[in-house]
């Protein structure tokens, strides 16, 4: 740390807002204080047209409120309800009465933003309008998104009295608030395909003077964009599947000595004993362990001890007992807990340090294919024997950061794990991977097993029970207890003139457009890229309807339907003004990842650069919040561990990050590219006392630059994956004493600090604990581990790599330099005086 870093006050000086040692680039601030895009007064249709997600669950609460705006209520750029979210903004270009009425309908009826977010809410109506701003058009769906208790639940709709669910005879769209009624209600027109059809007699209602059904506010499906139908028998091909959890656990030497086995056992036990696994009496559980052979367990409740059966012949795998591998949890709970308790001692002395993970999945498949369910695989080392064995020699760190890195990010050989996934999916089996290795594991080859069965990947490199226990346990318990849908399939329909060009997310596409997700859950997010149909003029309105058919844990067949509408327009400014920054960023990230794997990562970054150039250049002509903030997110992507051209990210880690981004919610994706930074050494008193829900208001968000920091400060940074606490070396000793229980900066033991924070009983300690809890509360998954860092420690590089407005390891440009390179031309002002100084004097004594 050379020079006068951080613009710190003299030693002992009062902590306070960071005085900048060099003026921040003025144009950045100018950009940020540009007035909001014009909204249409009088219609009540500002940027907050979408229902704001509930606190602690949706984007607004999880918001990286960045303090970019001078207003006191500045919140996250691009979050729903915040500047730059777009929304249905009527504009001053002269909307006719139809449009005004339609926009009111959209505000009232569209499925809320926690379920559906589109990159724009006014779509181009022609190819030429689209080409003027070539940002990705698409919708991000989180069909089972969790809801806070104070948010309206999704209404259930029962068509039992009607006889059948009313759907379009031509395109199978579900009846929804936007269908048009005619012949006094005797006929209806499908809003997606335009087909005119008879209303079933049992569903008839007369119309009012405006042509709307008289009963529409008595029927949820006619005035709610998000409804859940109770599916009648015709939506079942077999009795509804029960919740099934098959645990497949690595018991190799590595798993035992790192404490992975103990951690898995303790976590499963906690989930079972808490009674919070959904499904009650219907839940079935099985346990298989593996090293170089497979171990099945008879969990029949009539046995005094679970019986272990070893299968060593991996070439010719067979099930040693046909029944009693999967057993009802309610009947066999004692046997299951008993077995879990004894696993660490059974394998405590093992010397076997190899894995037949592929064969273990095959064995589990054989034991559960008659019924389907969730397959949870816990692995500590690379599969080296049996089916789908892999080679650790494939790893080649010299390729990292080069155009050949992509070779390590693609699956080895013939993509065997994807083929295995294709066998599992029709049997309604979804794989959740918990990988906790000490060395290279070849995630690129293994992860397709989760990806194509609708599962997720959880990755704990250098796993150690002492540092990873809480995170691992929280994440496993969350996976076992969140809202789940079984044997799920989804269809997404778009209206005339539009087509779906790509699905992103963890799913399997069967046939043309049937998305198969054997186990769908509340975190699951899909992105759908859309485009105009060739040679067809789109209707004035785009409609998107998704229908997720699933079995809930209580055994009821349900159809969760989301309907969303937006007007099209020839007007460039209307389109620009409607950009949802975070949803657009998420769509760009999907496209750039695709490109990175298909060609190489340079091409992926080029894609982001070209998006950014278009956005910046459009912003030179037409200033809106979206065009101001989108470049910041794109720069965040280029500097992130997902896209940057550096050799400090292992192939396994890069694969994990990409797997995670493929299925992350919009707000989590946004946080990853544009983290939150806040000062906690001077946190306001409002953080002292939680409200009745245990929530506190977080300190003001700071710009992501070391200019925001002082050497006597303590800062929290979170990116939706981890929380970092950076402690300046001139920190007040009373802070150190209160929070860590030691008398000086030098004495803080950063390795054990997490377990101390919030336990000291001191008011200041409690305040810090409240802030930390609030940050975690706003990100239900994954559990964000706290990393405490003292100024000057090597690991602070990770912290500074996230300060994206500075030069970072990922990209040696400040935000201003980056904007300039993208073609930014400051308007009405002289060139930024600060920009040159920034180049001469990088902040924090160096760039990271
Ligand atoms: Zn239709």
TrEMBL record:
<dbReference type="Pfam" id="PF04811">
    <property type="entry name" value="Sec23_trunk"/>
</dbReference>
<dbReference type="Pfam" id="PF00626">
    <property type="entry name" value="Gelsolin"/>
</dbReference>
<dbReference type="GO" id="GO:0070971">
    <property type="term" value="C:endoplasmic reticulum exit site"/>
</dbReference>
<dbReference type="GO" id="GO:0000139">
    <property type="term" value="C:Golgi membrane"/>
</dbReference>
<feature type="domain" description="Sec23/Sec24 helical">
    <location>
        <begin position="580"/>
        <end position="669"/>
    </location>
</feature>
<dbReference type="GO" id="GO:0000149">
    <property type="term" value="F:SNARE binding"/>
</dbReference>
<dbReference type="InterPro" id="IPR036465">
    <property type="entry name" value="vWFA_dom_sf"/>
</dbReference>
<keyword id="KW-0963">Cytoplasm</keyword>
<dbReference type="InterPro" id="IPR006900">
    <property type="entry name" value="Sec23/24_helical_dom"/>
</dbReference>
<feature type="domain" description="Sec23/Sec24 trunk">
    <location>
        <begin position="240"/>
        <end position="478"/>
    </location>
</feature>
<dbReference type="Pfam" id="PF08033">
    <property type="entry name" value="Sec23_BS"/>
</dbReference>
<dbReference type="Pfam" id="PF04810">
    <property type="entry name" value="zf-Sec23_Sec24"/>
</dbReference>
<dbReference type="Pfam" id="PF04815">
    <property type="entry name" value="Sec23_helical"/>
</dbReference>
<dbReference type="GO" id="GO:0005789">
    <property type="term" value="C:endoplasmic reticulum membrane"/>
</dbReference>
<feature type="region of interest" description="Disordered">
    <location>
        <begin position="1"/>
        <end position="51"/>
    </location>
</feature>
<keyword id="KW-0472">Membrane</keyword>
<dbReference type="InterPro" id="IPR007123">
    <property type="entry name" value="Gelsolin-like_dom"/>
</dbReference>
<keyword id="KW-0813">Transport</keyword>
<dbReference type="InterPro" id="IPR036175">
    <property type="entry name" value="Sec23/24_helical_dom_sf"/>
</dbReference>
<keyword id="KW-0256">Endoplasmic reticulum</keyword>
<feature type="region of interest" description="Disordered">
    <location>
        <begin position="71"/>
        <end position="96"/>
    </location>
</feature>
<feature type="domain" description="Gelsolin-like">
    <location>
        <begin position="696"/>
        <end position="751"/>
    </location>
</feature>
<dbReference type="InterPro" id="IPR036180">
    <property type="entry name" value="Gelsolin-like_dom_sf"/>
</dbReference>
<keyword id="KW-0931">ER-Golgi transport</keyword>
<dbReference type="InterPro" id="IPR012990">
    <property type="entry name" value="Beta-sandwich_Sec23_24"/>
</dbReference>
<dbReference type="GO" id="GO:0008270">
    <property type="term" value="F:zinc ion binding"/>
</dbReference>
<dbReference type="GO" id="GO:0030127">
    <property type="term" value="C:COPII vesicle coat"/>
</dbReference>
<feature type="domain" description="Sec23/Sec24 beta-sandwich">
    <location>
        <begin position="485"/>
        <end position="566"/>
    </location>
</feature>
<dbReference type="InterPro" id="IPR006895">
    <property type="entry name" value="Znf_Sec23_Sec24"/>
</dbReference>
<keyword id="KW-0333">Golgi apparatus</keyword>
<comment type="similarity">
    <text>Belongs to the SEC23/SEC24 family. SEC24 subfamily.</text>
</comment>
<protein>
    <recommendedName>
        <fullName>Protein transport protein Sec24-like</fullName>
    </recommendedName>
</protein>
<feature type="compositionally biased region" description="Pro residues">
    <location>
        <begin position="1"/>
        <end position="27"/>
    </location>
</feature>
<dbReference type="InterPro" id="IPR050550">
    <property type="entry name" value="SEC23_SEC24_subfamily"/>
</dbReference>
<feature type="domain" description="Zinc finger Sec23/Sec24-type">
    <location>
        <begin position="165"/>
        <end position="203"/>
    </location>
</feature>
<keyword id="KW-0653">Protein transport</keyword>
<feature type="compositionally biased region" description="Polar residues">
    <location>
        <begin position="30"/>
        <end position="41"/>
    </location>
</feature>
<dbReference type="GO" id="GO:0090110">
    <property type="term" value="P:COPII-coated vesicle cargo loading"/>
</dbReference>
<dbReference type="InterPro" id="IPR029006">
    <property type="entry name" value="ADF-H/Gelsolin-like_dom_sf"/>
</dbReference>
<dbReference type="InterPro" id="IPR036174">
    <property type="entry name" value="Znf_Sec23_Sec24_sf"/>
</dbReference>
<dbReference type="GO" id="GO:0006886">
    <property type="term" value="P:intracellular protein transport"/>
</dbReference>
<dbReference type="InterPro" id="IPR006896">
    <property type="entry name" value="Sec23/24_trunk_dom"/>
</dbReference>
